[in-house]
Design goal:
The protein is of the alpha+beta class. 44% of the residues lie in helices and 15% in strands. Helix 14 packs across helix 15.
Length: 585
């Protein structure tokens, strides 16, 4: 009776929503599985693309896991963890973003029956962590080093890694062509970690024959949307130096020379044009004749700057700010090439390549601050002109020029090349590769199944489930290519169990199995290690959450934001999937 009379203890504000217990864990697992199902079909060389239409009317076509996860408007708090691991995989190694989401979702899917049967999540977490560590150790044992090879051998091996990455992209049809280009670009920047030293210029293309696509070089982050007739993907080229689109020019520009051998290059961050007085400037004259001296002073200032540029011995003058019509004609009369309004990024890349230093004044310009290159030329690409600096002394920059059929194609091609560039850089730094095509996943799965038989207790089931989840990669490769996944997986299990098929994976061309290593389907070991590690940590984190608390303020704020977004949108596909743990109204 005394127990019944105890007052109710109120800890949280009225209206606070709490969801806890087994139902909450299952709800989180269901949300993550739904996210995994969204990107599942994009895996592998025969993966499908996703067309994502945002609230601003922009359209993105991509099969890159990180891009899709970033553009999906996911509001479920647990499912957002999968977005984070896709981002971390993209920034860390550049590829394997779909793989990491798929593995995390599959680990959770395999854990769901045990959670529903009353198994404590920490038993699962402990077994998953042990299995993940063993899997990573096994990957390191199976990895093959490419250290100690000659430059030509190393280039060949790196090109095969890049080709494996590009095989699942839109430009997979020309993967050998782009793979060698990517390897040359990465080797050109040496050990420098700055990715912006590899530029990618994009030009849109309008063709009467829609079957033709192109690719052209340029500078990272500078997007030129231009209609360029003709050409194919193989018109793409790599500049061992810097290339950027011709900037806005004044009269007199066409009189300037368009090609130089071994020129000196002056880089400026000042305006070279006649400046009038400020709007609020006030000058009082006692004699009208003095006005001419003020006008003359303005002209003398600009001519003094131009004289100093000429005396420096530079044959090419680039400035981040405007170079006016007077300066353009002045330089043309003295056989000097100039370009104003060059973007900050392009100017910095020219400085890195030519060894020059950007100047904020033309006073005391010495030889040490001037850059140089073997050849400078202005080259016609379609209907556009590019300024190309090649044979640069530091050789620490490279530019890929891309041409393509539509804006979406060009953007996806750039994302594909970014992934390939990241993979080649990682392979260079870590120097170990593993067979792709699901071969490494099947081998780890077999290894963990064998280990599970030596474990007494419930952990045997959990490690076995972890091993089964790893088979999602070869299974999904088969499903996406239209093959019989059950038949192919049975063949793979038999081959790996024989002890001689560690390198055997899915043959995407015949629908059977093949030696992935012999077929040059390789990927850096760091990609697989990072994917298994991130997926295991994410699944363990989601399994460890058994309660979600939402205070009324955050819920109403989210509701208002969602209502505002719904006003200009047809309703996001991922928005109303709250799961059982969300408050019902």
């Amino acid at each position: 009776m005394a127990a019944m009379m105890q007052p109710q203890i109120i800890l949280l504000k009225e209206g606070t929503d709490t969801s806890q217990g087994r139902a909450q864990v299952v709800s989180n697992i269901n949300a993550c599985t739904a996210v995994g199902d969204t990107v599942r079909t994009t895996l592998g060389p025969r993966g499908m693309d996703k067309l994502i239409h945002d609230d601003k009317g922009g359209v993105t076509i991509s099969n890159d896991g990180a891009t899709i996860m970033r553009l999906l408007d996911i509001v479920h708090p647990a499912a957002k963890i999968l977005v984070d691991i896709a981002k971390s995989q993209d920034s860390e190694v550049g590829d394997g973003t779909t793989t990491v989401v798929l593995l995390a979702a599959e680990f959770l899917k395999e854990a769901k029956p045990y959670v529903e049967d009353g198994v404590h999540p920490h038993s699962l977490i402990r077994s998953y962590r042990n299995a993940g560590n063993m899997a990573i150790q096994r990957v390191k044992e199976l990895a093959v080093s490419i250290e100690g090879k000659s430059l030509e051998e190393k280039k060949s091996l790196l090109a095969k890694c890049a080709a494996t990455t590009l095989s699942s992209k839109l430009i997979g049809g020309e993967k050998e062509f782009f793979a060698s280009m990517v390897v040359d670009a990465v080797l050109a920047i040496g050990n420098d970690d700055r990715l912006n030293l590899i530029g990618i210029k994009k030009l849109a293309l309008e063709l009467l024959c829609k079957m033709l696509c192109n690719a052209v070089s340029g500078s990272a982050g500078c997007y030129a949307k231009v209609q360029v007739p003709g050409g194919t993907m193989r018109d793409s080229f790599l500049v061992n130096g810097v290339a950027f689109k011709k900037t806005f020019s004044y009269a007199g520009f066409e009189q300037q020379p368009k090609k130089f051998l071994n020129p000196k290059i002056l880089l400026l961050n000042i305006e070279l044009e006649l400046k009038s007085e400020k709007e609020n400037a006030e000058i009082r004259l006692s004699d009208p004749l003095q006005y001419q001296s003020i006008v003359d002073a303005e002209w003398n200032i600009i001519y003094d700057k131009l004289d100093k540029c000429v005396k420096s011995g530079a044959k090419i003058v680039l400035s981040r700010l405007a170079i006016g019509d007077l300066a353009t004609q002045y330089f043309a009369d003295r056989d000097i090439f100039c370009a104003g309004r060059v973007t900050e990024e392009d100017l910095q890349r020219v400085a890195a390549a030519t060894g020059g230093t950007v100047q904020t004044s033309v006073n005391n310009v010495i030889d040490e601050v001037l850059g140089s290159c073997e050849v400078f030329e202005e080259k016609q690409v379609g209907n556009e002109r590019f300024n190309i600096f090649s044979g640069c002394p530091s050789g620490q920059t490279a530019t890929i020029v891309l041409r393509g059929g539509a804006d979406q194609f060009i953007e996806e091609a750039e994302r594909s090349l970014h992934d390939a560039i990241m993979i080649v850089r990682r392979a260079l730094k870590n120097s170990t590769v593993v067979p792709g095509g699901g071969a490494i996943d099947m081998e780890i799965s077999k290894y963990l199944r064998q280990h599970a038989r030596t474990i007494a207790g419930k952990s045997q089931f959990f490690v076995n489930s972890f091993a089964k989840a790893l088979e999602v990669i070869p299974r999904q490769l088969c499903d996406n290519a239209g093959f019989d996944a059950t038949d192919v997986l049975n063949k793979l299990r038999q081959k790996h169990a024989s002890g001689e098929g560690a390198n055997y994976g899915v043959d995407i061309n015949t629908g059977g199995i093949a030696d992935s290593f012999a077929n040059f389907v390789w990927e850096p070991a760091v990609v697989k290690i990072n994917a298994i590690n991130a997926a295991t940590e994410a699944s363990c984190l989601i399994l460890s959450v058994d309660e979600t608390v939402k205070n009324p303020k955050s819920e109403s704020a989210q509701g208002n934001a969602a209502a505002g977004a719904m006003g200009g949108r047809g309703g996001g596909a991922m928005r109303g999937r709250g799961g059982r743990g969300m408050r019902r109204r």
